[in-house]
Amino acid sequence: QVQLVESGGGLVQPGGSLRLSCAASRTIFSIYAMGWYRQAPGKQRDLVATITSGGSTNYADSVKGRFTISRDNAKNTVYLQMNSLKPEDTAIYYCNAHRTTGGSYSPLVAYDYWGQGTQVTVSS
Predict the structure, then answer these.
(1) Which of 72, 88, 76 is nearest to 38 (CA)?
(2) Other beta carbons within 10 Å of 113
(3) Would you give the distance in Å from CA 24 to the centre of its chain?
């Protein structure tokens, strides 16, 4: 049983800040990489940021220096701190859990789980 529940979305003015939270199942949180993706109307879903179980992070160029992803293993929660928000950041933000199993002598199998999304609107 895997469940991802996002929260923290809302309306904010340009230049403002917002923090998103994603609560995950304790069963998978410690071994899955976690990430945030976003999708604006009429556009594809794009990567925002990811963090591995070991704490390694990766960011889209458009959010570097403004967004910070982090995880609290004790709470099974991943966060996305968003600062200096711009109107182009407006989108539905989705939490993702990803894991690939297998190796040199085993077939690779990818697992992906998604939350239902939370709306972020940046407007004056």
Answers:
(1) 88
(2) 16
(3) 11
Mean pLDDT, contiguous 10-residue spans, the chain (124 residues): 89 98 85 94 96 94 98 93 98 95 87 95 96
CA distance 53 to 62: 24
DSSP structure string for the chain: ----EEE--EEE-TT--EEEEEE--TTTTTTSEEEEEEE-TTS--EEEEEE-TT--EEE-TTTTTTEEEEEETTTTEEEEEE-S--GGG-EEEEEEEEEEEEETTEEEEEEEEE---EEEEE--
Plot region of 61 (φ>0 → left; ψ -120 to 50 → alpha; else → beta): alpha
Classify residue 45 as exposed, middle or buried by CB count within 10 Å of its CB (0-12, 13-18, 19+).
middle
Phi, psi of 108 (to 5 degrees): -80, 135
